[in-house]
Specification:
With 185 residues, the chain is an all-alpha fold. The chain is 69% helix and 0% strand.
Length: 185
């Protein structure tokens, strides 16, 4: 008399059904095989929580659904990261030309020093020195997303400071500065 099949034998005996189940949901046989293998590994560590052999199949389908969802989330994060990298300026982005820098309001450079130190550092590294946001983030010890937020806030703070300090000159984009104000202290 043969003993009842083990959990592993029960699951592996349904391998083709599980593979078709996953493949229909992810659209790729290779990806389905990868997800199924990961689910088998997970099942080895948590199969002890299943009480009877009849519920093992339902339990494994639930495990597969969760694995599919996790895989989709992971691919979504990877996709968004790749899109962000494609949009982000490169490490060797050229600095603005000297003529443009000379035409910009001389107050801007001095007003950067009036910002919070972390905002001033963000403006200097990314806008003035041409460093990539990712490189600035690494230097500052923050995430790239946090660096983008900090840079956005720094730009907004600088825009407000220039508008307040220079008035009508700031409305024209501070090109050919005519505010003739002494540099801020």
């Amino acid at each position: 008399m043969r003993e009842s099949p083990t959990i592993a034998e029960n699951l592996y005996g349904q391998n083709d059904r599980f593979l078709r189940f996953v493949e229909r949901r992810v659209g790729s046989k290779a990806l389905a095989e990868e997800i199924l293998q990961d689910a088998y590994v997970k099942s080895l560590t948590s199969a002890g929580s299943v009480r009877d052999d009849e519920s093992i199949t339902a339990w494994f389908y639930r495990l597969l659904r969760n694995a599919i969802i996790d895989g989709q989330r992971r691919r979504g994060v990877e996709s968004r990261s790749l899109e962000r990298i494609a949009v982000e300026p490169g490490e060797a982005e050229p600095l603005p030309d000297a003529a443009l820098m000379d035409a910009v309001c001389s107050c801007v450079g001095a007003l950067v020093d009036t910002l919070k130190p972390e905002y001033a550092a963000a403006i200097r590294r990314v806008e003035v020195e041409g460093s990539a946001v990712g490189a600035f983030a690494e230097e500052a010890g923050i995430t790239p997303n946090n660096a983008r937020v900090r840079l956005h806030r720094a730009r907004e703070a600088l825009r407000r400071a220039v508008t307040e300090y220079c008035g009508s000159c700031a409305g024209g984009g501070c090109r050919d500065c005519s505010c003739q104000s002494p540099r801020p202290a």
